[in-house]
Amino acid sequence: MLIGDDETVRDLTRGAVLLGTGGGGDPYIGQLLLQQEIREGRSARVIGLDELADDAFVVSVAGIGAPTVLIEHLQARGVCERLLAMMERHLDRRIDAIVPAEVGGMNSVIPLALGAQLGLPVVDADGMGRAFPHIEMVTFSVYGNRACPMVIGNELGDTVLIEQATSDRKVEDIARVVTGALGAMVYGVLYPMSGAELRRTAIANSLSYAMEIGRGIREARSASSNPVAALLGIVGDRSRGRFACELFDGKIIDIQRETRDGWHLATVTLAGLDDSAQRLELLLQNEFLVARQDGRTLCMVPDLIAVVDRETAEPINAERLKYGQRLKVLGLAAQEIMRRPECLAVFGPQAFGIDEPFVPIENLVAGS
Amino acid sequence: MLIGDDETVRDLTRGAVLLGTGGGGDPYIGQLLLQQEIREGRSARVIGLDELADDAFVVSVAGIGAPTVLIEHLQARGVCERLLAMMERHLDRRIDAIVPAEVGGMNSVIPLALGAQLGLPVVDADGMGRAFPHIEMVTFSVYGNRACPMVIGNELGDTVLIEQATSDRKVEDIARVVTGALGAMVYGVLYPMSGAELRRTAIANSLSYAMEIGRGIREARSASSNPVAALLGIVGDRSRGRFACELFDGKIIDIQRETRDGWHLATVTLAGLDDSAQRLELLLQNEFLVARQDGRTLCMVPDLIAVVDRETAEPINAERLKYGQRLKVLGLAAQEIMRRPECLAVFGPQAFGIDEPFVPIENLVAGS
User: CA distances (Å), B130 to each of A33, B77, B125, B307, in order?
Assistant: First the structure.
């Protein structure tokens, strides 16, 4: 599959915001980079997991931190190209393909821009099926691949290699402080894997899923049908093993935000539109962690909580939420591979300090 | 020259504390490591700058941070060996010799322990002629060598390579946060240089100078002569281009300590022994920066301020200073190569926030 037109890029970005579950970083910069590639006549080639040779050499590429500053196109290209070259030199292997670490947020689009630039295929897969705040919170890691060697760099030429670390959590700790020292615009190349290792540990078809979501919303709008219903038809398509439902329909009556220890923390409270006493509370730690209605938990991490405009179904990042917005809150079941005990130990509720065992959204809403 | 007996090691350590000018880290751990090598039948071989081939490959090895925890001998050996091997692999060169970055404090002794272990010669030179808190504060850097590629690691196996950085100050910033993430016991291999580059930029004979100081103090004690006078005879030997003098003789009447932004800051006040109104104030930022008597500056960085026991001439680290100690404070002229404008820009008074231009100690005390 080739991504070579602006409409497809916008579809992908829209889906990536939804799968970012409130966070993941704004994909706008990645979108600009990819659109620039397309204007210059290049396309991103997306390949399926089954198209990878077992001994192919694959790496993830990600923007790290919060590149809120609009950056020069050529700079970003130069940084990632340098980092990939350093990884190749260090491991003495040619890179055959790149894979997004997370489909939610900016890091779904950045690998595509880079792939278009360098003529490298991008694998239609990721390690989260959503967005998470930490490097170790990926199925790649849970199922046995290592994040390092990892290369980190910025547009000034500063380049750091984490060659070896006690754990992927330690890689996260090191990468976080290095990112702080390197400044705002930092990229990383990590999770060097073989094609066989990626196939064994990845979440399949993530990019095409994000595009399907974005396209579904767009097409429903132009057909004047109900975009939220169309969206739920896609993300809740039981015939394809998916589950999703509307958790709440209401307006924001309170947002408490806090930045602590590098986290974007927030508590968002919605009230029903009919001035009912119903309240929905969303807890955010970069991404949404849990949705509770009147104290009862309706959806919890790693299941996805997505906030969309109640008319247009446009997905909205947590940082763009404002008092008075009228929204629908959706809950989406995470992929089965994300819900196993070994995954919950790394990115289940307890990993984020929530003192409740994980219960799948299907069971939580069935009880209502 | 071979260092193969405990007495020489203790001489070196004593001299290294004096040249640490209040800081540099306690050389005790390095001393234990080197003594262990000697007990196991190995010696450290010290070679002169003139014994290095022009195309020899030399690196510095240093403990970073404050390894106040007593560590296992084999661990420290393993860490440094691993880091040297990684540097060799990364640059595809065999390391021919190691050189201390600083002769003051712990990092004079650690390279000797490592040299003894690995059979690598240690160059009788350094980049400071004293101790400084930052990686970029070395003549190696001021005169054109680069700190990176630099390898950083700990005993757990965590390993980070700073491949490239905008400046050696940036290497310092990155290394500092990486050290924080890696924990207490961290080593670095840095400043890869050729023999010719080292010869052009190093301070010569640093290790033998530290040993001469330590030996001089010891011999004066056993000869029941005046150890402080003997010490001044060595560090103030004008026939060898040195200048030093006693700045003050007194007791500590106040110590204000503070840890801020990772700095060990202190103001130490001494009063004359005869209950005179004379006061000496020492400002410390890891190392002593300036000595002022009754408001008049007597000695300032990069010239050295050393505090010794007034009877035994034992040099005393700033962290071991206590209320009531009776001390002599000495001022030592820095090497000429350290006082040039390009050096003062990096480690002169202004670099430490002192709003006075550098004046050599010879001129300051001549005015009294």
Answer: 50, 25, 11, 14
Of the residues A158, A178, A185, the best mutation for testing chain B's interface (the one with the most B CB atoms within 10 Å of its CB) is A158
Find the helix or strand (DSSP H, E) in which B229 lies. helix B227-235
Whether A158 contacts chain B with CB within 8 A? yes
For A179, which residue in chain B has the nearest alpha carbon? B174
A163 interface with B at CB cutoff 8 Å: yes
Tell whether A298 lies on the interface with B, counting CB pairs under 8 A: no
H-type helices in chain A, by residue range?
6-19, 28-39, 73-91, 110-118, 139-142, 168-182, 195-201, 206-222, 227-235, 341-347, 361-366
> Would you tell me which residues 324-353 of chain A have a C-beta closer than 8 angstroms to some C-beta of chain B?
none
When pLDDT is averaged across residues A104-125 and rounded to a whole number, the result is: 94
pLDDT grade for A28, boundaries at 50, 70 and 90:
confident
A181 touches chain B (CB under 8 A): yes
- Whole-number Å distance between alpha carbons of A163 and A161: 6
Query: What's the pLDDT tens digit per position in B145-159?
Result: 999 999 999 988 999
As given in the structure block, the two tokens for residue B53 are 């081939």
Core vs surface per residue A349-360: b (16+ CB within 10 A) or e? bebbebeeebeb
Q: Is A345 exposed, middle or buried (0-12, 13-18, 19+ CB in 10 A)?
A: exposed
A268: which residues sit within 8 A by CB, 6+ positions away? A252, A254, A255, A281, A282, A284, A318, A321
Over residues A243-252, the mean pLDDT reads 97
d(CA A232, CA A225): 13
Beta strand pairing call for A57-64 and A97-99: parallel
Q: Tell me if the pTM is above 0.80.
A: yes
Q: Choose among A156, A165, A174: nearest Cβ to B166.
A: A156
- The one-character DSSP state at A94 is -
A63: closest CA of chain B, how far (Å): 18
Question: Does A159 sit within 8 Å of B163, measured CB to CB?
Answer: yes
**Contact between A178 and B173 using a beta-carbon 8 Å cutoff:** no
Is the minimum CB–CB distance between B97 and chain A shorter than 8 Å? no
